[in-house]
Amino acid sequence: MRKTVITLAAAATVGLGTIFGGASIHTEAASISSLKDQQNKVQKERSGIKSDLMKQNDKISNLQNQQNSVESEIKRLEAAINQAAAQIKEKTAKIAETKAEITKLQEESAVLKERIEKRNVLLKDRIRSYQETGGVISYLDVLFGATSFSDFIDRANAVATIMAADQDILQQHEADKRELETKQTEVQKNLGSLEKMVADIERTNQQLNAQRAEKDNLLASLEEQEAEEQEVAMDMKEQENILAAQEAAIKRSLQAAQAAQAAQAAKQAQKPAASSSSGGSAGGSNAPAVSSGNFTRPAPGVVTSQYGMRNGKMHYGVDIAKSGGGVPIWAAADGEVYAAHYSSSYGNVIYILHNINGQIYTTVYAHMSSMGVGVGANVKKGQQIGTMGNTGASRGQHLHFELYKGRWAYHSAINPAGIVPY
Ligand SMILES: [Zn+2]
Description:
The chain has 422 residues and is α+β, with helices and mostly antiparallel strands. Among the domains are: 70-223, Helix Hairpins (Orthogonal Bundle); 287-422, Glucose Permease (Domain IIA) (Distorted Sandwich). Helices cover 58% and strands 14% of the residues. It contains 5 helices and 12 strands. It has helices at 8-12, 17-20, 28-132, 137-144, 149-270; strands spanning 302-305, 308-310, 313-315, 318-321, 328-330, 335-343, 347-356, 359-368, 370-371, 378-379, 384-387, 399-405. The chain is rod-shaped and about 175 Å long. It starts with 7 loop residues before the first helix and ends in a 17-residue tail after the last strand. The structure holds zinc ion. Zinc ion (ZN) is lined by residues 305, 315, 317, 319, 400.
């Protein structure tokens, strides 16, 4: 992360002093050039951050494009999985149908077998009786029982018919049996190929699901990466907002210093002998003596987290918590609100610039439920600026308070212990 290196404090004594009331004008020329220098530095830093932000946004849109393509791949896989599932369902139904058909064929075949069996027994009986009587006795009995020649012919024909009929029935049964067996083998084959098909589809489906799980993981990690990059971008935007506010504050100071210089030049033209030591016109030089009394505690409640390392991460502020509604947040010292907005990390946050006898400090008040003052407001020590809340990346109602010696710069907050009572 870029580290900002502007030392606004150096110029503040004179330059920003105009904002806070107290200005000595004997070094206006020096302060104007110093303020211009600060202005250039802030502008340079802003353009640096803007180009970083552009690169960051490219990174984010690249991650978003990757997510889109993974998402469309997931959609394609989902369609394939659904299709496979439909095929499995269809083939499984066909398998059940085929199995029912096989059962039916087996039943038919059993009936047929029984009939053939019975027929065989009957025919065997006939053959046995034929053999036992040493010839076609049973038929001959029939024939010898004839009462006339025509009766004999009739009987002979009848015997032949019976024998032929027996043969026909047997042959028919054999044919039926063969046909059934053929059908059975065919259906069995059909069942085998159906089962193989289902196994194939199921294997494909498993592969598709594995691919899908892989894509899901990829998407999750891309989303996580994007969230991280978005956070970096948010930090950059916040830095840019704060730098913009500082640039505006410097510009106001510059204009005031230039006006003071012009006034001084006009005065010197009128009264060349005038002393320039105290510049009494600006007034307010009787500021209170530097003491611990310059700051007051920013909120009531208990300190739940100190400045310093916390869970392996640097905690750049002090957390003060108190439950209940309408817990006030106070300005830690006299100063000017130069930023008041919502950020995803800080929630509702106010930045105040203080000039404590020439030393610039910045205080930050995060996670407020509501803000009572806006940009440009001049606040007094102990004045309520908002209400304690739980907005942004916060777990539980508390104030996250940060102190900077000099102007705000990313990750450069100092430990407020010993400076601000809390
Ligand atoms: Zn905190």
